[in-house]
Amino acid sequence: AGHDDVQFEKEFYNLVNLKHQNIVRLVGYCHETRREYLSCNGAMVFADAIKKALCFEFMENGSLKDCLFDEFNGHGWRMRYAMIKGICNGLKYLHEEVEPPIFHLDLKPANILLDQNMIPKIADFGLSRFFKEEKSHSTNSPIGTRGYLPPEFIHHRIISNKLDIFSLGVVVIKIIAGPEGYSRSAETTSDQFTKTVHDNWRDRLQSTASGDLLESYSEQVKICIKIALSCLEADRRKRPTIGDIVNILTETETLDKMSTCMVDDTNLIDVHPLQLHFSFRPNKCISCLFHVTNNMNDQHVLVRCVPKHEEATPRYYACRSRITGVVPPRSTHTFVVTMVEQEQPPAITDVLDMVVETILGEVKLPSLGDLYDTHFENARKENSCGFREVTLKAVCATTSKTTTSEVLIGGDGLRSMDVHPTEPWILAGYFRRLVIWNYKTQTKMMEHSLISVISPIAFVSTVKFIIKSTEQLFVVGDGDGYVHVHDSMTMKILKKFKAHGRRVRSFAVHPTRPFVLSASWDKLIKLWDYDKGWSCIRTFTGHSGPVTRVKFNPHDANTFATASSDRTVKIWSISSPIHVTSLNCEDEQACVDYYHTTATVTGSYSHGTARIWDLRTQTCIREIKGLQSPCQVGVIDCHPESDRPTLLITASEDNGVSLVDSTTYRSERTIHFGLGGVLCFAYIKGVRSVAIGHEHGIAILEIDRFFPKVLPPVR
């Protein structure tokens, strides 16, 4: 406790007087002592319990450690350079602008935080020290982090301002060349490392700049690499001072400003890679990715991707496929291009080339509707809104290798989808037909037409697998209130009965008992026992509007939740027809899911807002806005038996799919499949993927490969 007190007080005094835009700001502190009855050596005693905390400004984008990418992926050069310059400015303030100077002594990506505009701020001053003179000192105290410490400290325990310079060199190399950049630099000569990284960046910069602008960026990259390597000199006396570094960087900006004065609206958009690599497999949909990075602070980027050659559609690209999206400031979105099934790859791959068009502005995709294409055409003709286009050259190679994502295009009109818990099957309900897909082989296993002589509105509304000990079933709810029970192995219909007065909107299957819940637009929820001939054993009333979703509680299967257009979400017990809890929402609700043991997540119909609710207090504790309407939110519970947090998956208003961090509620990464609106999600536990049902197809996304940081490793 004594050491903790010293560390707490040291960091407080180190921070309280620091005021710089690249130093994290201390906004308050707490130091409280309470007398508590505690256990000590097997006996209960009264003792002082000390609670202490430092309160800093909130940094929306986490730490630099989570934003490191190699030369080919992630943030563009302008953003990376801004990070380098900001860190250097902050370190210059500590070394040369405060009295006495402060040596940080633990500079690393985890201790550099990023605000909402990605401005870097140096943090964690617990190991920092004031020095009245800039000469070297020796210490026996543990400081720093392995991999960021210079030779003179490792061998002789010497500290000076040049220790921070060495750490800065490691940080800058990782910003430029990714998390493995420093180890790469140690495996080759300085000249070879500089050439390799510089050439990689030049290739990428060619997609966003040309002429003088390309040359100035290219030179800036080279200078930053050389600065970083000079910081790593084994002899600390040969390392530059932070003042020298900032001056050199400022000189590169003079050339940068001269080159960018006439192209200010286009140089902050980065499209990469510039090739589409189709890993061809006969009679399979083949997908590949490209990324658009928006490096601006205050403008959105509208994106449209279209085939360069008219003959590519519908021969190679689906007619309904619309690859569009809106990339917010300071972010990167991924777009998926999907080639439909072919027996042979095209003889001339140029036919697969795509053109990526971008325009600037605050106009969001939903407000444009059918005018989206017109908006782009006008921008092209008038050369307005920062219009620019980049051609992606296609490369098609025959391989058995699978990609990060797979797409199943089974026709238009997908209405519902479910994933089999043990077999590699997806049950897809289209308007008046049912298909079982094998997602591993991308083949259609079985198909069944839904033909009703009772009513012309008996279209497929919702589907669900039911796995019994003796047989495998699935159920279909239609638009006329009927439930159809099918054998999953043959798709033969086994039973059909009138369950509701109006459309059956949702099913939920009890995990251990032979129960199925159905929710309907007739405002009712019913509990069915399929072991007793599908007899209705309870009807639940209480909603004043159509019920849109029903979900069993995965932590207590004797309770369930429902969402309704009556602007409420209700919690029920299967033993009572009356709800236990009612959450009063602001608008009509489209979906509900259990977030963890004490919370639910709901999605609105018309306002594109998801809300996290604390069931103990019946209050909304978090909102996520800017989502698709009706809002679709899913929960991925990768480790239900552990305390690991669940993950949220959302669909944005431009139909981009994102995984949302359960702590910061920030989108980790967004991907656009170009398959229309998102209808539903399903987690495929066996292969750690998520199935995403769209209007015009189903996408299978491998989470470990596309979102490598959000899931814990396989156990």
UniProtKB/TrEMBL annotation:
InterPro entries recorded: Ig-like_fold (IPR013783), Kinase-like_dom_sf (IPR011009), Prot_kinase_dom (IPR000719), Ser/Thr_kinase_AS (IPR008271), WD40/YVTN_repeat-like_dom_sf (IPR015943), WD40_repeat_dom_sf (IPR036322), WD40_rpt (IPR001680)
Coiled-coil region: none
Protein source organism: Hordeum vulgare subsp. vulgare (Domesticated barley)
Start and end residues of each Protein kinase domain: 1-255
Annotated keywords: WD repeat
Protein name as annotated: Predicted protein
Superkingdom classification of source: Eukaryota
WD repeats, residue ranges: 497-529, 540-582
Pfam family, one: WD40
One Gene Ontology MF term: ATP binding
